[in-house]
Every structure is written in C-alpha cells, then in structure tokens.
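Reviewer 2 asked us to include a model.

Predict the structure of this chain.
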Amino acid sequence: MRWAVAAPFTADPASDRWLTPFVRGGRHSFVMVPAPPRPSWHARAQRASGWLDWLGTWSQGRTAWAANAQGVITVFPQLAFSVGARQRARAPQRLVVAWCFNLGQLYGGVKRAAARLALARVDRFVVHSRAEVALYAEWLELPQERFRFVPLQRAAIPLEEVEEQRDPFVLAMGSAQRDYATLFEAVRGSRRRTIVVAAAHALAGLDVPANVEVRRGLTAAECRRLAQRARVNVVPVRAAATAAGQVTLVEALRMGRAVVATRCSGSVDYVAHERTGLLVEPHSAAALRDAIERLWADADLRADLGRNAARHAQEHCSDEAAGVALRGVLDELVGSGRACRS
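Predicted model (structure tokens):
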C-alpha cells in the first residue's frame, strides 16, 4: 500500500526519509511530502504555533491529501488536524495514521470541539507515553483501541565529546513544560556549575541563580555535544497531564548519559529508576538536589547508568525499533480491510 508522509521536518524529501527506510517487507511504499520552512522552536517568542505555522501546516496537509496514495501518515498533531479535517469532509476516504500525537496541553471549549470534529476519523493515533492512550481517548471521546503506544525514537547520535573534567557541569535543556523553578531551587547556593538551554518563555519570571548560565540559539548538534560533555543531565518537568521532555531524555539515553528526570508520564516509560537513570518526584527541590549530588560524586554509577541507558535506547528507542512498530501499525490497518472506527 502507498502512503503519503507529512512531517514538519521533511524539507528535502529526497534525503529526509524519516522512518520509511526501516519499514521492511515490501508491503508498503511511501512518498514524502515537502514541508514549508519553519523557525527553530527555541527561537520562538511564544509556545504555541503561530499563524504562519498553521498556514504552512494546512498547505502541507492539502498536498499530502492530494498525493497519489491510499493512506496518509502525519507527524505531530497540527498535521493530523489538517489531514483529519479533510478526511471528514471529503471523499474518497483514506487511512490516516497520526504519529507522534502529543499535545502541550489539553484544551477545552472551542479548541477541544474543533479537535474532536477534525480528528474523529483518524484511524490510529501513535503516542509516546502509555498514560496518553487513555488521556487522549477520553479528551477526543474516541475508543482506546484507536491509540497505540510506541516509544519515541531517535537516530543514533555520534559520540564526539567526553565528560568535561576540568570544569564539570550540570546540564538541563528544553522548553516545553519544564520545571526550571525547581531546578534553580535545587542548585541555588551550590558550587555546581549549571547550564540551561531554553527559550526565553521557559524562564520568564524566574530568578536565575549565580551559578547558572543560560544559553539559547544553539544548533541541535551543539546541544548534543554539550550533553555529552555534561557530568549530569537533568530533565526537570512540571507534573502536567500530557508528556513532555521526551526528546531531550531519549537523546541523552541514546548517547549513554547519566540522567536525572522528573517522575511523570513522559519519563516513566523510558527511565527505570536505578537502572537506566534516576527519577525524582515532581516539584521536590530536595529530591532533585540529592539525585544530582549522588550522580555528581559517583563516576561508577554514572558509567553503569549510561551503559544501561544506551543499551535500552538502542533496543526500544532506535529508528530500527520504531520502523518495526510503524510496520505493525500499517499492517494492522491494511489487514483489517477498513479503518477501525468503532
């Protein structure tokens, strides 16, 4: 079966193939839909998608729908909304898979009503935390059978740096749903050099401690090299209903880094406490401080957690693993003979 793939990062469909090379067996073929240019997320002044983003998303969704394909795979909710609206309004129908369906927050009122209307005929939603299966099914008033949990995947990352020894540091990166207030309380007054890479909105109104250096505008490659040099990587997340922090977390695991993460829906499917990282309770500066200090002082523990993390991520969070999962979702839909809209 032929699928059109719409993702916001496929600027060059000839080279940006996403997971399609890892879908084996020859049963499915894919056409990549070019994406319009978008600004870096960290360069934005606001958290939500702007009008220009939505116009680009709507255009890409229209192109995906018009492609010579029997099904459409979208990556991220905005594209699912664009294609889902067309699925509801037009014929002939196509099979629609909404991959990486993760919302920053659950909306009410008109936004929720619009989402329920547009997404009602999406055949499969792929989420990256188990908790989101029931969460989004309830929010959209759809059966849980339409949702699948697949671990978030990241490609293998070249290891170009080693842990900084002369001037070691704690590192926290990312902007979505981050709890930098708790991190700042945890490191305030300590001698631990701390680097935070985040958009301005993620730090708005916070008193940045003297031992914290804020950076922004870094490339993805620069962020990864920084993570490799860090003695301790921290992913502090607010206890929100929806998952957040998973890209930063999974990339750290892929690079074999020792991680401290907030125990929340975005981390518990990826970090096994004491085996692949350390989990701390939400909003507990004392627990976060203790975990950072524990990793900081114990090189053997950092090495053990890092090795276990890299092994786990290769097995469950790699492109190869996600390709197998994607094929399973597509095979299930095609084998059913029709979309599952019970």
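The chain has two domains: 2-153+318-336, 170-316. The chain has eleven helices and twelve strands. We have added this to the supplementary material.
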